[in-house]
Amino acid sequence: MRMSRIVRTAADLLYPAILIFGLYIVAHGHLTPGGGFQGGAVIATGGALVIVAYSYKEVSGWLKKNVLTGQEVTGLVGFIGVGLLALAFGQVFFFNYLAGSGSIFGVPVPYGINSGELNTAGIIPLMNFAVGIEVWGGLTVVILYMLSGLEKEGC
Amino acid sequence: MKKKLVIAASLLIMTAFFGIIALNLTFGSPKMTDMDDYFLSHGQEQTGSNNECTAVVFDYRGFDTLGESTVLFCGIIGVALMFRKIQGGE
Fold this sequence. Notes:
The structure holds two protein chains of two kinds. By secondary structure, chain A is mostly helical.
C-alpha cells in the first residue's frame, strides 16, 4: 500500500534530515544528552517513515535486510572489539585506553564546566558509533521483517 | 455500576497511597553517597567525557551496555525467526 504523493515527498525531504540528526546525536553522545541507543532509534524512525510512506515492495529494493542485519552484527562485534582492544594495551576489558592519551579522541578535559571538545572521551565515541550502527540496523530490520510477514498475508 | 465503583475506589486508594509517599519526599536534597561524589569529581579526568551519564554507561558500567546490546541482538534474532516461519508457510 502506497501513501499519497504529498506524504512521499515529505518523507523524501525528511529522511536525510532525520539521518543527520540521528548521526549528530550518536556523534555527540559524550557531550550532550543522547548516545548510541538514542541516536540509532532516531535513525530507525526515519527508516520507518520511508517504509510507511512507500510500499514494502518499493522499499525492499534499497533497504535490504541482509545489509541491515550485517550492520547490526558489525555494530555488536565492533563494540566488543573496541573493548577487547584494551587487552592489547595491557589493561582490563573495557578500560578507556584512549582517554587523555593525546591521540585520536584523546584530548584531556579540564574539571568542571567547559565548552566541550568533540575530540575527547577516548573509546566512548567509538562505542557510541558501534552501538548506534547496531540499533539503526536492528530496529529497521524488525520493521522490515514484520512488514514482510504482513505482505505475505495479503495486507 | 458496581464495577465502576470498585475501579474508582481502587484508583482513589492508589492515588492516596502514592501521593502520600511522594509528598513526604524531600526535593532537591538527594542522599549523597561516596559513589556519586567519586563519579562527579573523577569522571571528567578519567574518561574525558563531559556527559556524566555516558561516562557511567559506556565506561564505568561497560558490561551493562554489553548486556543491553546482546539483549537487543537476541530480541531481533527472535523476531527474524518468528516472521521467517510465516513467510515459508505453516
